[in-house]
Design brief:
The chain has 384 residues and is mainly alpha-helical. It folds into two domains: 2-76; 82-373, Rhodopsin 7-helix transmembrane proteins (Rhopdopsin 7-helix transmembrane proteins). It is built from 16 helices and no strands. The termini are far apart. It comes from Elysia crispata (lettuce slug).
């Protein structure tokens, strides 16, 4: 084979031989497949002395350009290639996140109805009502984003690109509602801390009226901060890498802020209870503290991946939506959105299992028998 290769190469023009040598150097570095292809071409006589030198040269240079482009594309994919990235986006975003978010829409609507039935005389109910509204906004937007990432939705004859449109119509609103949920949970956690440290004064410090004003201020402030985006950024045929990345960065910054605040307040609550500061607390208040602490813990666990992803994007320059590791970055975000949808959907289980008042209203709403009433009836029947 070496003799045939040498004999064939002897009749080639000098420019073609130089191109072959350059191609061999490139393929030795980026893989053996192209090298074997060139060897077979020369050995089998596909490049013959009678062939047009200009045609052979253009064929070699064209194939060389394709080989270099393939090598650069493979290098730019990082650790995860495009097919694997699309698989995780479809699985996590289109399927799992879509299913969990659809359940979250139903669960948060139930939460809103139950808290309305409980009236708004208690500041905690008001805060949890506001949290249910913001969580409902989060999961509704995640349902829309999961549709945009669906391969079936992308194949429809639409007048827009779903992946481009969802960054503005999904990423920014989701980040806004994510901030609102963070601040509301931090507020209700802070209220429970005051209930532990100042049990006799908390009712005068945090009143239902002040809670309503605080929640309205949180909603309006976050809407106002995100409103300029929709006036300053338009939907056009050209994608902006800055616009593409900002929703991710915004959502991550939101999570860091909420995580730090909640960690501090939750730790203070637990420390005060251990030191005996809850001596004047009722059993109802203690159960409420445990419930709010569990809600905060779920938030922390679900948003830890967001914090790690932000730190990685800060310290790794190529780890971004437009960097070399963009596929890994997008796969990580598909898991992050899965955690975020879980955080906004599972509070109904916490309320039902840890709040007897919520459980009673829930069972009345669906006309289910109350377990406590059933147990009382059985005891009375046994007496007679």
């Amino acid at each position: 084979m070496t003799e045939n290769l040498t004999a064939s190469a002897a009749h080639l023009p000098e420019s073609v031989i130089i191109a072959c040598i350059f191609c061999a150097n490139v393929t030795l570095r980026d893989g053996e497949m192209s090298k074997q292809r060139w060897t077979n071409l020369l050995a089998e006589g596909d490049i013959s002395p009678s062939a047009s030198p200009q045609l052979c040269g253009w064929d070699i240079l064209a194939d060389l350009e394709n080989s270099v482009a393939d090598a650069q594309r493979n290098n730019n994919e990082g650790f995860i290639d495009d097919p694997l990235r699309r698989f995780f986006e479809t699985l996590n975003f289109s399927i799992l996140t879509g299913i969990i978010s659809a359940f979250g829409c139903l669960s948060n609507v139930i939460n809103i109805i139950v808290f309305c039935k409980q009236k708004f005389s208690d500041s905690v109910n008001i805060s949890l009502f506001g949290l249910a509204i913001s969580d409902l906004g989060c999961v509704v937007i995640l349902v829309w984003m999961s549709m945009c990432f669906s391969p079936l939705f992308q194949t429809l004859s639409l007048p827009f690109n779903p992946l481009t449109v969802q960054y503005l119509t999904g990423g920014w609103p989701h980040g806004c509602f994510g901030k609102i949920s963070s601040f509301i949970t931090a507020y209700v956690t802070f209220e429970r801390c005051l209930c532990v440290t100042l049990p006799l004064k908390v009712k005068t410090i945090i009143t239902p009226r002040r809670t309503i004003l605080t929640l309205v201020a949180i909603f309006l402030a976050n809407f106002a901060m995100n409103a300029p985006v929709f006036f300053g950024i338009g939907l056009g045929p050209v994608s902006s890498t800055t616009v593409t990345y900002l929703p991710y960065n915004t959502s991550t910054s939101i999570s860091i802020r909420g995580l730090t605040w909640r960690s501090q307040t939750t730790g203070q609550s637990a420390s005060a209870e251990k030191m005996g500061g809850a001596g004047a607390m009722t059993q109802k208040d203690k159960r409420l503290v445990k419930m709010i602490t569990l809600v905060s813990t779920i938030f922390i666990v679900c948003f830890l991946p967001t914090c790690f992803n932000l730190l990685a994007s800060i310290y790794l320059a190529e780890y971004s939506i437009v960097g070399r590791y963009r596929n890994l970055f997008q796969v990580a975000w598909s898991f992050i959105k899965l955690f975020e949808s879980t955080n906004s959907s599972v509070n109904i289980f916490v309320y039902y299992n840890m709040s007897s008042r919520y459980r009673k209203c829930f069972r009345e709403l669906f006309r289910l028998p109350d377990n406590e009433d059933v147990a009382t009836t059985k005891k009375q029947e046994q007496r007679y």
